Sequence to fold (422 residues):
Amino acid sequence: MEQTAPNSRDKILEVAEALFARRGFAGVGLRQVADQAGLGKSSLFHHFRSKAQLYLAVLDRVLVGIDERLAGAAETGGAPMQRLDRMVDTLIDALAEQPATARLLLRSLFEEDDLPAEAGSAQEATDRITQRILARIDTLLREGMKEGVFRPVSVGHTIQTLIGATVYHFASGEFGELLLGRSLLSSEEVRQRKEEVKALIHHGLAASSAS
Amino acid sequence: MEQTAPNSRDKILEVAEALFARRGFAGVGLRQVADQAGLGKSSLFHHFRSKAQLYLAVLDRVLVGIDERLAGAAETGGAPMQRLDRMVDTLIDALAEQPATARLLLRSLFEEDDLPAEAGSAQEATDRITQRILARIDTLLREGMKEGVFRPVSVGHTIQTLIGATVYHFASGEFGELLLGRSLLSSEEVRQRKEEVKALIHHGLAASSAS
DNA sequence: GTCTATACTACGATAGAC
DNA sequence: GTCTATCGTAGTATAGAC
Fold:
């Protein structure tokens, strides 16, 4: 649709995203990235200073995408429970549409410590976006508790549970499919994941048994 | 306590577990393992045929440990909700006591596909233990639903949520600590994690509002 | 059971021609 | 902006002495 003709930089980011999601930072060779992007290995270094910078550029791109979609979901207003429902739907849609995203995000939690230390400023950029995303949920949860529609919970622990219920789920790959008996990404299972998560919220987070 | 004097094989497994948990399969070099185990690189191949076999041996060891602890928790009987509470407590205790475990388990979901294909029979062993662990929760959830103490839910999705709430949480490392504002492994946060997860279950999974 | 030595491959990164 | 060629390092794994 809005695809014109990706320049080399975008093409590299695209194939690197898929590879990093599947194999992790250490598991991907730049040779592989270059081949799939249709370039020589050395050409990568014209666009990105190092493997670590490429990885962080990929991660940044994904985080920005998630943040934009969540921003759209939050802006429409409504009661806290409605907004939380919309955030869950939006996040799950995003994760289901781009299967690499969930794995990349979850892996990023483990792999930030084996990046070369020099990565510096690019690290800070991804950290800032992460903080922005977390702040959206944090604010929403506190508002809901203040209004008395959510029961009193630890905000941090609740965010962790929500991430587990969404990002982990769609990152679980073959294991999750074994558990559900079919593809995590089938429209039926995506729909059901939304229902199950929202039902858990409505029963488990609501102060009264509102639905 | 029951530590006598670990033979080389156990020492290798021990240091490899920590390294694989931290860096992942591709991120660990056998040189590193050998150094930390106090051996030459080549000596590893006397105990394990290949890096993949070593990895699978580490994973198997961890899965067996989890399975044994969950078996202990399940055997004591009681109502489904009580048993589920005990399983959550037991699992969280296990993950908190051995910080490498959660990361290793979560990583194993992503990394099984970049193991050399030859690994064959050892793969099946870890799969069997995984199935046994899952069957414990599966049976318990179905029993609770049959008795009417759990509301009707998708068993697969619920297991995914429980894994996310426990394994993911303790695998989240620095990110989780940023979110909670203190170490995931402090006794206070471990205690609170148990409370939050069990509260979510009691409010969100129970058919009535039993506690 | 552990060692040294070695084979072969791949890695990330750089230099410099075009 | 992409290429070929190359550097230095580290990877897994094997052979064979002790």
The mean pLDDT of chain A is 94. Residues 8, 39-40, 42-43, 46-47 of chain A lie near DNA strand D (CB under 10 Å from a C1'). The CA atoms of residues 45 and 79 of chain A lie 49 Å apart.
